[in-house]
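ping. complex inputs:
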Amino acid sequence: AISDAVIKKVQKIIIDSGYKPNQIARSLRTGNSNIIGLIIEDISNSFFAKIARLIEDKAYKRGYKIIYSSTENNIEKAKELIEMFKSRKVDAYIISPIKGIEDDIQILLDENKPVILFDRNLPTLNTNYVGANHFVASYQAVESFIKQGKKNIALVTTDIDVQQIIERFEGYKKALLDYGLPFNKDLVLKIPFNQEEIISNKQIKQLFKNQGLDAALFATNYLAISGLKVLKQMDRKVDKTLAIIGYDDHEAFELHTPSISTIQQPLEQIAETIIKLILAQLSSKTKLPNQQIIIPAKLILRN
Amino acid sequence: AISDAVIKKVQKIIIDSGYKPNQIARSLRTGNSNIIGLIIEDISNSFFAKIARLIEDKAYKRGYKIIYSSTENNIEKAKELIEMFKSRKVDAYIISPIKGIEDDIQILLDENKPVILFDRNLPTLNTNYVGANHFVASYQAVESFIKQGKKNIALVTTDIDVQQIIERFEGYKKALLDYGLPFNKDLVLKIPFNQEEIISNKQIKQLFKNQGLDAALFATNYLAISGLKVLKQMDRKVDKTLAIIGYDDHEAFELHTPSISTIQQPLEQIAETIIKLILAQLSSKTKLPNQQIIIPAKLILRN
DNA sequence: TAAATTTACTAAAACGTTTTAGTAAATTAA
DNA sequence: TTAATTTACTAAAACGTTTTAGTAAATTTA
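pong. complex structure:
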């Protein structure tokens, strides 16, 4: 036991001399960093920006810092980011993944680094995952259209090949099936991720010209924004003849006239769950069992 | 000179053995990191999210990585972030600063670290700054109100004490003065930064109840969003009797019915300028003179 | 050709911590 | 009381690079 007097004396010297441990040296020796790496699709998408902010906040309160970077759904960039985080010895990884980086993530897992996937799952990997129930959410959205008497329901989605997007598509199809509506592939528009907005808008416009179309579900918030812009440009109102549901809430939805219904993911809960999983793993000496946590998304009906 | 044969042989071994230099060890020895630290107010604000994304993109193309974190206008957190970046040996700092961290930034300057302030200036510091001309932008916005015949023009702003916000206020006052309109402090609402949105909305509602109010300039995008929400809730239309101008464009502005005019900062240009300044300094052996670059903001009139 | 300089290479030191090893002193067990 | 163990402290090794120092060989200069 060291006497209080000595402890105080040493602490005083630390403060007086302004000593700050060199974290780089510390990381070199210990191999960790108190930093968690967060890899997302695009920080300028408000869904990711909000979740990043929440994660950052929660991690910060527990003594961890977050560093984040966007992949733009570019496999090369994603690989490089993982490489960079690895070389910076981040303690854990939170990743909104894309198809094609399974191997890189598997290496992290092999090295026993805590990895949490979120928003999108990579089913071939055995790892932690936190995400919303997109299948059910999408099903409910379409169901609500049908209950309003809609017959020709469009789905505007993206072409990225990830679980989350596929589920939204499946939910859409299942709802049509269950309620005896035909699946019409002309009513499904898959927009390439990195496509110029102008081109996407033209495609959406084309879709809206489809006679009889009386409802549309958008699979991401930026697509819904594009859709609303197109409608405005076409001077077509969102009214009894045309219902819209968006995905991942956005200020513009509530503010729109009329307000736009949306599928809202519980951001707060997702962020909290992610952080809890990470911290549990970081503070445990043994490898904890992987968990797949599916959180219900909520259909917010506005009018 | 080393023979090509040897170079090839060595490179082959590097690849075959999967050698990846340990960046931590490298940073420990060299004192730098090829990482640029970006400190902003709040990553979930779309203005910052967009600029972060642009900066990240441009830096990435030049071989630098960006790590960013939000201060939430909390001085303590800002100081800690600077401390963290310092201890991680980032090569340069891009900071959207707040009052109260002048000393910490001065220390960075004393250590000859490249520092670029953006969006907000700290006039007491002699350093690089890149930002929009908020005074002029704000002046023009009010001027455009006046030319529409508006007499009772409100300003909804925040209470944070930074150059950028002060300039917006000054532009507002100057325009009133130049056009012979009285300055009425009841028409200026300063909303505390971290205040609950519900309370802010009440204050804004109160402001809108002010009889005769026929125009309002909002000094930030999130305040304008709040304002529009309040109007919607009050069922008051934005029409000939009430004009609105926002700040820092937002999808919701264009999409709003009617579309909302706004002051748009040239994000692309700001990001590019910041990166250029940083890289110029990083690649120069000598200390370059500090530059204060003011970029015009643009008033986008919509209707 | 001899001296001076440059080049090529090897070995060791340095960056600033944490961890391990080693030793003396203090405590506990027999 | 003596041996065994624990505690307190000091010194050195280790993390993986880059930089510096040192030496021998090669080249240039006079």
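Residues 46-61 of chain A form the longest helix (16 residues).
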